[in-house]
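In the laboratory, one determines a bound structure by crystallizing the protein with its ligand and collecting diffraction data. In a computational setting the workflow is compressed into a single prediction: the sequence and the ligand go in, and a structural description comes out. We illustrate the idea with coenzyme A.
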Amino acid sequence: MLKKFKTKKGKDVSIRYLCKDDTKDLLELYNSLVDEKSYTVATKKFNLNQEKIFVESSLNKIIKAEAIFLVAEYNNKALGITSIVKEQSPIIEHRGNFGIILSKDIRGEGVGEELMRCIIKEAQRFLKIKLITLNVFEENIAAINLYKKMNFIQAGKIEKGLKHFGRYKNEIIMVKYI
Ligand SMILES: CC(C)(COP(=O)(O)OP(=O)(O)OC[C@H]1O[C@@H](n2cnc3c(N)ncnc32)[C@H](O)[C@@H]1OP(=O)(O)O)[C@@H](O)C(=O)NCCC(=O)NCCS
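The predicted complex, in structure-token form:
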């Protein structure tokens, strides 16, 4: 376990590396974001087999130091996941791409911030990257505020660069040098 803390509402949350046993919880989490029509990559529901493949491939990337995947656990359940995946092409292998999703049940309590602090530290230790990039829907104000708080800066904007359930939306690209 990397960290244990109390959220702003007093929940005991721990942050640790992803493991195989998280598969069902993460499937539930991912599919809940599809239902919510959240501003994330979650647009189509996964089945258990697809989630198993995702978790196995993520674990392989951790072993090969190609990525970090951390989960936030509350009441023995994985309610959040964050990742930094190192780029593979030689010209961008000094970059890692960041992502994060939390269950609605534990948002706004400081968990996103704690997860980000932990994963950036782990990436600095194990991934040999110099910068972290991320892509976010312009409408995702909560996420953009969190990233600004973590000292990410806007590196660009692609008008209508992302699709959200059939509608084109602006994409904000942010970066943090580590
Ligand atoms: C975006 C997300 C990861 C933020 O995590 P969180 O745990 O809710 O955020 P925290 O409680 O740690 O808040 C940290 C900062 O983020 C910003 N923030 C969080 N929720 C916010 C909201 N509803 N409105 C505006 N800003 C918000 C604030 O700057 C906050 O700092 P403050 O508490 O000092 O005001 C979380 O809301 C989430 O998973 N959302 C759905 C999935 C998603 O959009 N993922 C990102 C895809 S790019």
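Residues 38-40, 100-102, 107-113, 136, 140-143, 145-146, 149 surround coenzyme A (CB under 6 Å). Keep in mind that any predicted model is a hypothesis to be tested, not a measurement.
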